[in-house]
User: Fold this.
Amino acid sequence: MKRLWRPALACVLALLALGLWADIRWGVFSPPRCRLPVLIYHHFVEEDGDVDTGTVVSARRLREQLAALRDAGYTAVSLAQVLDFVDQGTPLPEKSVLITIDDGYTSNLDIAAPILEELGMRATVFVIGINEGEDCYVHTGQPFALPRFSYGEAVPWVERGVLDLQCHTFDLHRLPPDGEREGVLPLSGEGDYDQVLLEDLAQFRQRREGRVSTPLVALAYPFGYWCAQADQILAQEGIRLTFTTREHRNTLYAGHPETLRLLGRYNVTQAVSGPALVARLNRP
Assistant:
C-alpha cells in the first residue's frame, strides 16, 4: 500500500497541473468573445391599422419591443462600441444588441428616433445614397411611395447619439427590371465588377462627406445579396462591418476583425411582441 500512494499522488498532481494549464490557456490566451444579436427594421407608422406589410412596425409595437428589451437588461450598442471591443478588447455590456434600420425612410426620424431616445436606445440606419433627401426615384422621376430623409434632417439625432447613418450602397439597391443586376451581385462575364463597386462606394462617400459626423464603417447588403468578391473589395476600402439578412446571432472575438463581416440580422415585424422578441434573443 505504501508503494501505491506515490503513483496516485503523482497522478493527482498531474491532473491539477493539466487543469491549471487549461484554465490559463482558455482563460488568459483565448480572445474575449461577445455574442451580438442584430435587429433589422425598415418603416414605421403611427397607427396599428396602417401596418400592411412585413417590413412595417407601428409606434406602439416598436415602443413595446424596445421597452421589453430594456427591461430584460439589453443595451443597444453603437458601431463604435462594437469596433472598440474587436479592436481593443473594450468590454461590451453583458446583454448587448445592435439595432439597425434599412433604407432611410422619414419615419425613422419622425417615429422611431423619438422612441429610441425615450427608452435610452440607439440605432444604425443604412441609407440608400441616391435616394437621400430626394422626393422621387432618380431613374424614373416617379414620386416615392414612402418619403426619404436627408442627412441634414437627421443631424440632430446623429449629434445626440440616437442614430448613426451608414451605407446601403449608393445605387445598387435595385433588382431587374428596375436595374440590370441583383443588388451588388456581378453580372455574368462582367470584367469591370471591381470598378462598379468602387465607383458606387465613392459616390456614397462623396454625398455623405461633411454631412454626417460619424465615420463611414459599415454597409448592409441590399436584399441580403452578397458575394466573396464584393466583401473583399469593401474590406479593402475601409468598410469594417458588413451585414446580411440571414437570421442568426453573431459571435465577435477581440482581435479578430473578420468576425465583423457578414453579420446576421433578425427581421422584426409587427407580429413580434415584446416578450417574443426577448425570447428570440435569449435563445442559445
Observations:
- The chain is about 35% helix and 15% strand.
